[in-house]
Amino acid sequence: MNRKIIVTGGCGYIGSHAVIQLIENQFEVVVLDNLSNSSEANLGRIKQITGKQPLFIKVDLSNSEATSKIFKRHNDALAVIHFAALKAVGESINIPLKYYHNNLNCLLNTLNSQTENGINKFIFSSSATVYGTPDELPITEKSITKQPSSPYGNTKKIGEEIIEDYCKTELNFSSISLRYFNPIGAHESGIIGELPKGIPNNLMPYITQTAAGILDKLKVFGGDYPTQDGTAIRDYVHVVDLAQAHIHALNRLLNQEQEASFETFNLGSNKGYSVLEMIQTFEAVSKVKLNYEITERRTGDITQLYASTKLAEEKLGWKAQRTIEEMILSSWKWEQNLLSKKNRK
Ligand code: NAD
Ligand code: WQD
Question: Quick one: which of 11, 50, 98, 271 could link to 33 by a disulfide (CB 3.0–4.6 Å)?
Fold first, then answer.
């Protein structure tokens, strides 16, 4: 039976973990990626874990002709999972057109090429950033979406609007948009994980690289937030839990269980942790003392964010299983593995 799924951005952090889940669920995977923020080495890591290497095609999906050609060759695919995007918030503020160009063209070309070839199921990597500064906590899918604080975030909000419009007019086309909160962690094997290029923007890789001695000191952005310890609160979710949610969403699409042609789901853990709690938990599970200092707030950061994932539980049958300790320990195991093998690519 045909089980082919096209995964854009499948060499990246979340995409590679989703490819592992797809292979473990007997799907045949075709990875499309231009490697702008990832490495082909991840394909070998996927093989090490699953025993199978997915077919890989290097392509820039913002190029419509190149994209179209590939989809013609794989017109028997059942669905597309679309991870491909640039995601550096700060860079997107400095170079907004790069982000609008890349993220929106990748989306438009993928939608066009897949429907030209009769592939009418689509999963989109969205983000909690579409809620802007929330009026209520926990955030539900009914919470209003707002102008995100960066052009990157705006590509996710506009992306969802494009897909929703498309679902209204394109008969038989259906889509699920997954709004990730803060993905962290790595595959339990320590063989694959997040590999930021250059200095990390996100908290978790900053913590592990500081602990590993690659970076000198972690700056905690803001100690004067109105929270229990003055630092900002986020909803962290294990990347393996997140990857598994894609299988649930895919099955919902393939089994035609959707209640609307466009659906959105929050993917988080329903819990908020402050930056200091993250540091303390890291120190407790790793037994490594972290060099950090509390500094000014980072522009654009909000005080607290955490999800209600009731809808995902009810409709997708998915709930995050892994604890914050497991998330942090798996990140640390991956970082140590990178250090010992000198395979930082
Ligand atoms: P990542 O950078 O590790 O993966 C994205 C992949 O897309 C990379 O492999 C990159 O090379 C590829 N890519 C980018 N532009 C491309 C293009 N023009 N053509 C082909 N491939 C291209 O990022 P990630 O953390 O794995 O994120 C995956 C998705 O999830 C992205 O859409 C991101 O915006 C979204 N997301 C991520 C987070 C997070 O914190 N990591 C949170 C919410 C949403
Ligand atoms: C978490 C907390 C920081 C680094 C971003 C994007 C969002 C989504 C996920 C894609 C915050 C603090 C961080 C550091 C720190 N990505 N921090 N020192 O900002 O919640 O979300 O990634 O869609 O769109 O904005 O995640 O990991 O950067 O920060 O104190 O060196 O850690 O201030 O409170 P964020 P993050």
Answer: 11
Tell me: the pLDDT tens digits for 79-92?
A: 999 999 999 999 99
Ligand 2 pocket test: pick from 13, 82, 89 the residue with the most ligand atoms within 8 Å of its Cβ: 89
Q: How many domains does the chain have?
A: 2
Q: Within this chain, do residues 244 and 106 fall inside the same structural domain, yes or no?
A: yes
Choosing from 133, 184, 234, 281 the residue with most ligand 2 atoms within 8 A of its CB, the one to mutate for a pocket test is 234
Buried b (16+ CB within 10 A) or exposed e, 306-342: bbbbebbeebbebebebebebbbbbbbbbbbbbeeee
In whole angstroms, what is the distance from residue 187 CA to residue 21 CA? 11
Indicate which CATH number applies to the domain containing 87: 3.40.50.720
C-alpha distances (whole Å) from 149 to each of 142, 146, 201 are 20, 9, 15
Q: Per-residue pLDDT tens for 150-170?
A: 999 999 999 999 999 999 999
Domain of residue 224 covers 203-233+271-312+324-341
Q: Give dist(CA 83, CA 10) in Å, integer.
A: 7
Q: How many CB atoms lie within 10 A of CB 116?
A: 12
pLDDT in tens, 206-251: 999 999 999 999 999 999 999 999 999 999 999 999 999 999 999 9
- Residue with CA nearest ligand 1 atom 30: 125
